[in-house]
Amino acid sequence: MSDLSKLYDAILNGETKNAIALTREALEGGADPLDLVTRYMAPAMDEAGKRFECEEYFVPELMRAAQAMKGALELIRPLLVASGAEPAGRVVIGTVRGDRHDIGKNLVSSMLEGGGFEVHDLGIDVSPEKFVLAVRERSPDLVCLSTLLTVTMRSVPITIQALKDAGLRERVRVLVGGAPVTEEWALKVGADGYGANAAAAVPLARRMLARQDQPPACPGGTMTGIAAHAHDRDAPRRQEILDRVEQTDLRSRLSRERLFGDAR
């Protein structure tokens, strides 16, 4: 059997072809699929996330690592299912109604898969009704809502309300992320958690399920501290985005007044 530390390095360095070849070789040599995930692959993705938080990795490096992980997992996933191995948790994820962006959502999906979660990706422009149906059918632990556009932020509380109306809200934890979103806003609209970036997704998901803090992502820092620092750094831009949302709502209300003589 080959040196399995090379699999860790291949994923961390985003070497997809090498990661797939090493995984195939290890499986053919009798390696335990779950052992490959827990001892080499998931730790590699954890390290990639930490490097991203410490600004040693950036989005391209993180995406390459996630792609390598995804390629290796395609060989392992059927074996894990056949063995009856339980995932770290089950996730339903999608970009909310009206928003057709998927790069960030796809990266979060890959990070969660790399962290040992079973992910059911609903895609883009997902209606509240489709989220409700997926929760009924998949019984996930977490529902992740992504929004990149300011005009589609309102789909987040609408989706959360749809889960409440269907009697499903208490069965899941709702996590929210996207460029215009802040932690304050996410909690205000009824979400359970907020991820500032894709690297924060796995630690956040684990905390939501385990109810315990993760170790610091960087020496001298914590995930919470880093997220708060990023939040402070981006505060002017985020406030500008939220101001535009309010202005858009005002313009829509004034348009209805002109057209119908009354604003709902």
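The record above closes out task 2.4. Task 2.5 opens with a second protein, given below.
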Amino acid sequence: MSVLQVNNITDTGGSTLLGRKNAIINGNFDVWQRGSGAFVSSGYTSDRWYILRGGSTTLSTTRQTFALGQTDVPYNPKYYLEASPTTGGLASSFLYISQAIEGVSSFAGETVTLSFYAKADASKNIAVEFVQSFGSGGSPSTVVTGISVTTVALTAAWVKYTVTADIPSITGKTLGTDGNDSLAFAIWLEAGSDYNARTNSLGNQSGTFEFAQVQLEAGSVATPFERRSYGEELALCQRYYQKYTGDMYYNAHRGLDNTYDGHVYIATFVYQTPMRATPSINVTRYGWLANQSVWTASSSAFAIGDATSNSFGMRGVWSWTGSESTANTTTAIRLENLALDAEL
């Protein structure tokens, strides 16, 4: 009997199908749960990508679409990220794009390679820096900045760039107790003199900068960009952020009513993907449906509680005019525009 031994399977994009090499989530900028921009303040833009600005620098960040059939960036990506800072011209002015990788132990004591496609509106330098954060809570070690700072010279054409970095060991370090330690990298687009040590004296500048296919992997060699399906990438993003748009109805059951002059209804919302930690919960509006019609409350109380990394509970208390016999049959709690945030 012959035996076929398979050591590895590689697709045409270079990705190993039996394991994942790219530590960056949404490196292809496929997922934009928060919208397509323009984003004009510090915060998350494309999923898992955070932009921070300061010192009077302003910005506009948007999702841009590649022309169908373009060949400047391989494997037919659909979107790229465009960031346009306008410098504040101060020593304290800065703007960078970053992504935090869960767990400061990631690549600790190892060599890594960051690769990405980028271009600018003219020849301009940017700087890449790695950062080890030991989290919050308790007495964590101090954040380590300025790791393997590298200057990258962009042009007005799409080019693939690589940056190799030696990530320090974390031996002897102390983690915080909140479970939010991370290894991050920052791509600095402008930086006043206050940040010279972290940016190789990048300096103040304005302009338009565009990025695609960002990959971080172990070793000193940049391999072809690893492609993942949209469904897989979305699930990875939803570990940190989930957004539900529009009206959602959840079957509720009657609970004990010992406090209010009304009736308690309880429901559970289960997340599409288990999250990194118990998320913050934001909902635009809430309501209820009973007996196939929307009620108007004469008095109401609504609460979200018992949140975990997998679900949260909802409790609504409503009173109404009319007989109880017609008021406690088909009941659901309604939520509108729900956002769950468990980012690092």
